[in-house]
Design a protein that fits this description.
This protein has 4 helices and 17 strands. The strands form 4 sheets. Strands 2, 5, 8, 11, 12, 15 and 16 form a 7-stranded mixed sheet that branches. Strands 6-4-1-3-7 form a 5-stranded mixed sheet. It has a 3-stranded antiparallel sheet with strand order 10-17-14, with no helix packed on it. The chain starts with a helix and ends in a 7-residue tail after the last strand.
């Protein structure tokens, strides 16, 4: 053996040979432990994260889909799964108003790398899109309760009188007003002021800047009817 070869052997192979053998043994033992670890499967319902949707569009589908993902992998990893660890990502670049069907594949699933995607249910999702529209609608206070005997509502003041709503154009155009949470005037004989939020029952419509609405109700003597 040449001097150079011996020097190479001593420096890179024989130097700290015992420590290297121990490290190799630990690595092999760990690999064997992992490969012998029992596998498990789990099915979880997860959200679909929509990415890069054009800013002037809204999803107009009444039901926003979710996906059921079947996963297989080490039992220890399955047991540690958290909701934030798993979701499906759907890119919406270039989407236009109308209906469109998207495939769901394992490449769109974000999951811990030790786990394998076995199945996605459904394998496709169908979505409808519409232009985003903003408009102002009047606020309709909802008054409930039983009037005090001999009293009726004299005046209702609402501030602000309108709110701004935003959502898919077709749904927004069908909305005439926003309703407040109920104001109970049972037994009121003078005037009362309440703060209530305004809302629209359509889940696709959002009330922007939804600060509470100030509702002042003044009662007066006279025959009247009970509140709704």
């Amino acid at each position: 053996m040449s001097k150079g070869a011996y020097s190479f052997l001593h420096r890179y192979i024989l130097n700290n040979l015992g420590l290297k053998l121990v490290s190799l043994g630990l690595a092999v033992g760990l690999w064997l432990a992992v490969t012998r670890e029992p596998a498990a499967e789990v099915a979880l319902e997860v959200p679909i994260a929509f990415r890069n949707m054009p800013g002037n569009l809204e999803i107009s589908s009444q039901d926003i889909p979710r996906a059921q993902i079947r996963l297989r992998g080490p039992e220890r990893v399955i047991r540690r799964l958290q909701p934030a660890d798993l979701y499906v990502e759907l890119w919406l670049d270039g989407v236009r108003p109308g209906e469109r069907t998207f495939d769901l594949t394992s490449h769109q699933v974000h999951q811990p790398h030790e786990l394998q995607v076995v199945q996605i249910i459904p394998s496709q999702v169908h979505l409808a899109f519409d232009m985003r529209e903003t408009r102002q609608v009047r606020v309709e206070p909802r008054v409930t309760g039983t009037f005090a005997q001999g009293y009726r509502i004299g005046q209702i003041q609402v501030e602000p009188t309108t709110v701004t709503i935003v959502g898919p154009a077709k749904q927004v155009e069908a909305i005439d007003s926003a309703t407040t949470d109920p104001v109970d005037i049972t037994g009121t004989i003078d005037h009362v002021t309440h703060l209530r939020h305004a809302y629209v029952s359509d889940p696709l419509i959002q009330v922007m800047h939804s600060d509470p609405v100030r509702i002042t109700i003044t009662m007066e003597k006279g025959s009247g009817r009970n509140g709704d």
